[in-house]
């Protein structure tokens, strides 16, 4: 979120800005946000070594590591229309059956009207496309091959 600040971002991402100036800008911004000392040290180290541009990647990688440590399994479900509460509860229950002991379901839902109906499920390393769009595409392919 700090790099979304246009002023800070322009200073930090400018390759011509001196390292000390970048460090000062980051330190001031982090102090204002009351970040933990560990976070401040990490950001200062990134600024010092000219690697602040990697901050979003580092945050993302750390999030994945922590998620795995907590036993969270990311599951993304894409539907044509938003799911109601009853459907969401039923879906969570069904998806929990794919988890092993100690794993926790971290469900993310998306809507994509282009899939027409059904759903696309990504859970862990598994991908299941049960969308109407994919069924239509498969049937169209079969019909074209038959002619």
TrEMBL record:
Location, primary (coarse class): membrane
Domain of life: Eukaryota
GO CC annotation, single: membrane
Entries under Pfam families matching the protein: OSCP (PF00213)
Keywords: ATP synthesis, Hydrogen ion transport, Ion transport, Membrane, Transport
Localization: Membrane
GO terms assigned for molecular function: proton-transporting ATP synthase activity, rotational mechanism
PROSITE patterns per the UniProt record, alphabetical: ATPASE_DELTA
Family recorded in the similarity comment: Belongs to the ATPase delta chain family.
HAMAP family: ATP_synth_delta_bact
Subunit structure: Component of the ATP synthase complex composed at least of ATP5F1A/subunit alpha, ATP5F1B/subunit beta, ATP5MC1/subunit c (homooctomer), MT-ATP6/subunit a, MT-ATP8/subunit 8, ATP5ME/subunit e, ATP5MF/subunit f, ATP5MG/subunit g, ATP5MK/subunit k, ATP5MJ/subunit j, ATP5F1C/subunit gamma, ATP5F1D/subunit delta, ATP5F1E/subunit epsilon, ATP5PF/subunit F6, ATP5PB/subunit b, ATP5PD/subunit d, ATP5PO/subunit OSCP.
NCBIfam families per the UniProt record, alphabetical: ATP_synt_delta (TIGR01145)
PANTHER family according to UniProt: ATP SYNTHASE DELTA CHAIN
The protein's name: ATP synthase peripheral stalk subunit OSCP, mitochondrial
